[in-house]
Amino acid sequence: MQRPDPQKITEALAARFSSPTRSTRLTVVLGRWLAVSFTICFVTGLFSHGLQNPPSWMFFPTSPVWIYQLSQGLHVTSGIASIPLLLAKLWSVYPELLRWPLVKSIPHALERASIALFIASSLLQLTTGLINTYKWYPWPFPFRETHYWLAWVIWGSLLLHIAVKLPAIMTNWNGRAVRLTELQDAGSGSPAAGTEASSIAGVTGAAPGRWSRRAFLAGVGVTTGAVVLTTAGQSFSWLSPLNLFAPRVMGTGPQSVPVNRTATEAKVADLATSAHWSLEVTYQGSSTTFSLAELRALPQHEQELPIACVEGWSQMARWRGVRIRDLLSAVGAPHASVLRVTSLEPQGPYRLMSMPAEYVQDERTLVALELNGAVLDVEHGYPARIIAPGRPGVLQTKWLHTVEVL
Ligand SMILES: Nc1nc2c(c(=O)[nH]1)N[C@H]1C(S)=C(S)[C@@H](COP(=O)(O)O)O[C@H]1N2
Ligand SMILES: [Mo]
Description:
Blueprint: H1 6-17, H2 24-52, H3 67-97, H4 106-133, H5 143-171, H6 175-187, H7 191-204, H8 210-229, H9 269-273, E1 278-283, E2 286-291, H10 292-297, E3 301-308, E4 314-323, H11 324-330, E5 339-343, E6 352-355, H12 357-361, E7 366-371, E8 374-375, E9 385-387, E10 400-405
Parallel strand pairs: 1-10
Antiparallel strand pairs: 1-2, 3-4, 4-7, 5-6, 5-10, 7-8, 7-9
Helix pairs in contact: 2-3, 2-5, 3-4, 3-8, 4-5
């Protein structure tokens, strides 16, 4: 019995997987596209995380009012675009991953470990992110924290990977240079093959493999474009007619605005519709309550502001209600205050919300009583909800209970 020779297996595998579309140049081009989508995803993700978990130096932009709508739309869209790009890149390199011996040296081991970590964390990040936008949370861990830390793992392993691969990236960065090398390589092969290859090259001015690489890249580009165009309509209204696969559709739901969590799911339906409801505002140890009639008697203001969910969907709407800063004036509190807002919701992550002074001072921040020209539907937060410019949907608290001035 002969023992299998690892070298032979490697060669057999290489022959089995060899394809003109698999080349370092292809991998580099796909890597560049991925670098763009991952960078957009990372930067917008950090912004979203910062708004929800603010570090002490955080700056809170309230203008333009759609800043979070845009940033989170880009986040989810670039994440979706990364899926076909990452799969194509994996396809272009996976024979490499099977190469023997598995580990040749310490730098080689580091390189392999960084790639393994990068692939595993990216796949986990993109799939859980996608599943999350479909309102499905089949995991026991807290999504946002995990998503945040995985992003750092991805970038750490990616930078290591890029550092190791820098020579290959540099030689394959420029398409012209790559074509020249391919021509030379073709010319120096066996005489027959060489003549054939150089005569083809002479006629078309291109090396064999270049066209199939182009076709492959075009296929990946079209696929990526298609998934973006058929989902981005959940975030960008001008793409809304093409929205085939995204989970939320603009203009649907009560008062033509989608709902993430209903009053029944939040167990607030009874409390919210009670005739005894009032909003309690506390400042320096004393508390003032406002009935719905009293809130309606205060000056009412109208504002066009978006609901922009962290899960990607967003929608502009017309809100009407009391300016939060007018409410503070009514209890004698300064406008430059930080607030702690609670919902009637008995429990859940969105019961408590804190509002930095930037939003409190902004005249567009409302305690909204109406939406799109009618009294707020209970699903949208009746009797009163917060709507502030440029904030994630999770911070636009529905079914208000108390406002504490800190
Ligand atoms: N009290 C409370 N407020 C809440 C929520 C919630 O579950 N409970 N959901 C938030 C989320 S995730 C979003 S995206 C917006 C959605 O607002 P809408 O249902 O009016 O469209 O409300 C936010 N306000
Ligand atoms: Mo949301």
